[in-house]
Backbone:
């Protein structure tokens, strides 16, 4: 059974930074593409960033140049470094992968507000 647990969310002022972490209870973690999604109130869940087993990365246009996704296979962790945060980045952020089915964490709230 796959389990994803996110942490690192919180309240930050515009222009600030946060680092989200996700630990995966998942065998052979290194083979999985990992992703971060977010869902703002009243909006659909959207892909923020993903990183493949070969460490190729993909970003939503809205976060390019500000967010960086990375992974540590030995620790079965995936990270999302978020810089220059904007109020429109406010959302619940979810860790994601696929192993027989789409797997989601419980989410971590990020609020960008002055």
Residues:
């Amino acid at each position: 059974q796959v389990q994803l647990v996110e942490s690192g969310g919180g309240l930050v002022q515009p222009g600030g930074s946060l680092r989200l972490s996700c630990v995966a209870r998942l065998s052979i973690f290194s083979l999985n593409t990992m992703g971060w999604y977010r869902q703002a109130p009243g909006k659909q869940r959207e892909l923020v960033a993903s990183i493949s087993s070969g460490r190729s990365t993909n970003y939503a246009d809205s976060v390019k140049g500000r967010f960086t996704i990375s992974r540590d296979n030995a620790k079965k962790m995936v990270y999302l470094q978020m810089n220059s945060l904007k109020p429109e980045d406010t959302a619940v952020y979810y860790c994601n992968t696929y192993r027989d089915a789409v797997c989601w964490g419980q989410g971590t709230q990020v609020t960008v507000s002055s």
Observations:
- The chain has no helices and eleven strands.
- Residues 3 and 25 are 5 Å apart (CA to CA).
- The first strand starts at residue 3 and ends at 7.
